[in-house]
Amino acid sequence: MRATLMYGAGDVRVENVPDPVIKHPTDALVRITASCVCGSDLHPYGQMKPQDGPARMGHEFIGVVEDTGPEVTTVKRGDLVVAPFAISDNTCVFCREGLHTSCSHPQANFWDGEPEEGGQAEAVRVPLADGTLVKLPVAPDSALVPSLLTLSDVFGTGYHAAVSGGVNERTGVTVIGDGAVGLLAVLSAKRLGAEQIILMGRHRARTDLGREFGATDVVPARGEEGIAAVRDLTGGQGTHVVLEAVGHMPAYEQAVGILRPGGVISRVGVPQYEEAPIGFGSLFRHNLRLAGGPAPVRAHIEELMPDILDGAIDPGKVFDATTDLDGVPAAYQDMADRKSLKVLIKP
Amino acid sequence: MRATLMYGAGDVRVENVPDPVIKHPTDALVRITASCVCGSDLHPYGQMKPQDGPARMGHEFIGVVEDTGPEVTTVKRGDLVVAPFAISDNTCVFCREGLHTSCSHPQANFWDGEPEEGGQAEAVRVPLADGTLVKLPVAPDSALVPSLLTLSDVFGTGYHAAVSGGVNERTGVTVIGDGAVGLLAVLSAKRLGAEQIILMGRHRARTDLGREFGATDVVPARGEEGIAAVRDLTGGQGTHVVLEAVGHMPAYEQAVGILRPGGVISRVGVPQYEEAPIGFGSLFRHNLRLAGGPAPVRAHIEELMPDILDGAIDPGKVFDATTDLDGVPAAYQDMADRKSLKVLIKP
Questions:
Q1: Can you say whether the dihedral through the CA atoms of B284, B197, B291, B178 is positive or negative?
Q2: pLDDT in tens, B189-234
Q3: How far is B75 from chain A (nearest CA, A)?
Q4: Which residue of A159, B14, B115, B271 has the fewest C-beta atoms within 10 A of its own C-beta?
């Protein structure tokens, strides 16, 4: 079959690879019908060293079950399914608490940690299929597929940011980042009842979509100027919750700067730093809190899917381009150049 | 009058200073009847540069109101009062939310930020007396004074750690630090219903008091050995909540190491660092959270005082020595040498 491999920064290729096969009795084989490129794929696309490649790419997909191992019981051949970006058994103590990204099963993993599997391909072997896959009640060509595909990562991640940040009717929210996760964090904050949702981003087409998703204010400025603008919008007090969907240090520093005393920074952008200021001069003085991490999107699928199925929300609007597998290398470049917000792949 | 001044690391003196006077209509003058030395006073005692001194010391005290400005209404001459370590108006938007340490009044401050006032003295001018002072329904010589004095900082700080960490009947708790705040964090966790309370500390007399306050386990080991011991005690999973009452980097690193996925580090030890690891390899990977800061002890006084008045708890047991003002320099040294846990001052 054909699959996407990254050989290093800026070097993505679509090549022939061996077809996936059932290896464990809990595996399923899935023929992929829709997948996509993630903002987090752009981190290695910007900096991966050749000696770390080639790596199979893609951790968001919808597909049709082709085969299942003898222990798989919740999905069967012919089912259309969605897979979260993390493989989990959905039964361990952490999964039962809704923290599937810390699943304690030995086979639990991120797709990005599976060297021979990836979602930007024609097919994939899914470990722990009972825990990982969720059946979708639509056909593979449904118009809802783009929105349902966001359940595999970006919508669930934006929602996790909002839930981890404690967003509710009484919190003002600021979202840093106008990528797909940031925009869907806006949608999530709106869903959780936040009245003021400030979106910090400077790409007009994206912030317009953010307004459509529920942003009440848009701040294109960054750094000190951006901080001042958010403080102005919040009566000088700062914002209760920052949903940080970027992962770079300037976004973190901006988050600290715009936060209200007692407020919380909820991070879902994968940090591209390890050390950061958290002492008296940054977080401690005013009881600022820090939350977030890899989103247990599996925990949110059942909750979010009905709103998509009944048309109440349309998170799939974050896809502004579609390609086949041949176009995947160009899709990476378009997203890196910010020509595309998020590219849907029809293998 | 006589007051305590710090001239630099290891150099504490008791000297004659001008008597305090009413400066603002919202001030009160208080004749101090009981105060103490704080673990946080040991930070400057260890490292203060002479050019930063002399500094008036002491931020925990009980005393009798001697005079009040014309706008003071809630306390009057002759009242016995306790003062939190932070001056606040108790009416601003942050105080009303229980975050008195972020009070927005221009005169709000920490006692340590008031250059001409301090609690380790014979008397003190109290700004924003209506907001700051709380009347005590006992006599100045009551046997309850030591416990009531802990409401000014160490008990409220331990309690803030537990509340900020979300301690409840379903959380396992580990307290790092066997100083007065750590021990009262144990008492606080017990009060909030935690069943497992692990105390990390190596001073037997202190950890024994910790057991009396509710610790179910004591871990004297530190570093990797201490982390392994806590993991053993928590079925390998780690602890839900860490109450970090030290403030040094090794305590933070230990906190990260013993935390359960999704768990929270609640810091009340004033951080002696600004940068620390919070990226994918430390907090992010398993959704570890960070909370805490200077405790709004004013918010907790009314809640905690009844338990002291009716004898249900005795947080004053953290005082293991008493001195007059002349003995204050020696009290600092005894606490620095860990000969004394916490020294009560009877001016």
A1: negative
A2: 999 999 999 999 999 999 999 999 999 999 999 999 999 999 999 9
A3: 28
A4: B115
